[in-house]
Amino acid sequence: MPAAAAEAQAPPPAALHSLVVSLRQSRSTWILLLALALAGALHARTTSETGDIRQRIPSIKSRGQEKEPDLRFRDLHTVFPPLEDLNDRDRLWPPNLDKPLCDLRIFVYDLPSDLRLPEKTVSQCRWSAYNSELLLHRTLTDPLSPRHSPSNHPHRSLYTEDPAEADFFLIPLFPACYLFDCWVKAGWTKTERCGVDDEYIQPVMRYIREAHPHWNASGGPDHLLFHPMDFIDGYYTEASRAAMNASTYLVTVGDVRPAPYGRYFRSFRDLVIPSSTHLLNSYYLNPRDYVDELGRPLVEPRGAADPHRQIAAQPAHSDIFVPSPDEPYDLSLHTLWRIGRRMLGWDPCNERDERSTLAIFRGGVGTETDGERYALGIRSLLFPSDGNTSSPPFSSSIHPGFSSLPGFDIAVWSENDDYARRLARSKFGLAPPGYTLDTTRLYEYLAFGVVPVFLGTGPTAGQVLPFARDVDWSSFTLSIPRERAHESPQILARVGEDEYERLRRNVWEVGRKVVLEEREGNAWKLLARDLCRMKRKGALTPGPEIANN
Fold first, then answer.
1. pLDDT, position 345
2. Which residues in 175-189 are b (16+ Cβ under 10 Å) and which e?
3. 549 falls within a domain
4. By residue range, what is the domain housing residue 223?
5. What range(s) does the Exostosin GT47 domain occupy (predicted)?
């Protein structure tokens, strides 16, 4: 270029000149900024594509390959209007559990004193899993104080003292409690029977048939009997079973597997009830002392669970819906400090914690004689195994156990308060079988807002759950089949936060209603729905749609 032309050329803009100088002097800084900009652009593009994919229907796998989603279905929610709510909600399932199916009445026999269980036997039984028969009987027959008894409590809405208006008759026969007391006294020799047939069952049933007309008038189908044991009436003689089995059994084990496992459960007649648990129904630990009204864990427990509170006696009832009342104020230093914290808004009972534990389990692994047969072999996965089948967990495989994984809180036993605190901070609760498919841990999980995970149990394994015709168990539980039990950690880790929150919320709003407690008496309300169906009471009148036009 000629020198004159070069001199005539305009100098570069000041901004460009400054940029060139900056690039020369701060080269590393500019490289870092460029890398950050590229990363941001890639992240924005990925997020945009992910959001777009979420609006589409899931891709379909065919012949091992994934097909591209059809974009024509991308905006269906803008094309088709949502369906309006039905005025007749009874056409949908699950139903409104607060709405009774029919007006039902239950008469409870009053046995002579010589046919009742001794008070020592009753007291002993309250510390067993068979306490469910005592608790359900008391909930129906005992008029609680107004504080513990809402207007729709079963004692007010279901119980009747007039047998003429009764739809069902409850026999206060408690053979499971009788045998539990017998086994305790016999050093847990379960072959002992202590005269349960000749001295208890048959005399009571003879009195029911001979002193009242109600059994003979119906032949027994409108009578209810408790059998909350693993093998239901399989513990008794043929004579005792013949005297009882025309009635409906209220059982804690519903099993439709082939014999011998489901041999004693009569799916056409028996009704499954929740099990009693030591934590809730014997020690009366109140979940609401550990979690708030939405089921979220508290930083520090309150009420009866407050470590600074001294309790003179155990509470009379387990209120899983209402937190324990505060103790009366005194002038102790702790009380004054607590009042001050409340006034300043520093009360830790108002502070919420997070559920930081992924999964929890408390329970044993059976005995050496049970071997790998116990719990269908599933519990052997939970604890470390050296492959020695003669020592716990009696597994022939060598593995570290789920208990070695981060986020898994697994042990054989915990002190009650410690266990309650851990439940309140756990997301999922593992529910493998024991000797049967039923496990009482299920109800502890529900009471504390923990999402139950059926491992080789649940409806897909042949287990009949309480009130399954009204309660949508799939809405607040997870089911992992036995053949995939070893994948449980990966399966739980893949549950997203939105899905977990949906399950947790349903546990708190629906699942808790299945737990045995006395203040609301929901177990009897749900039982009444099944009894209404048995009596064919409250059925809807068939409409024109019955023709299936």
1. 56
2. bbbbbbbbbeeeeee
3. no
4. 106-276+529-535
5. 104-494
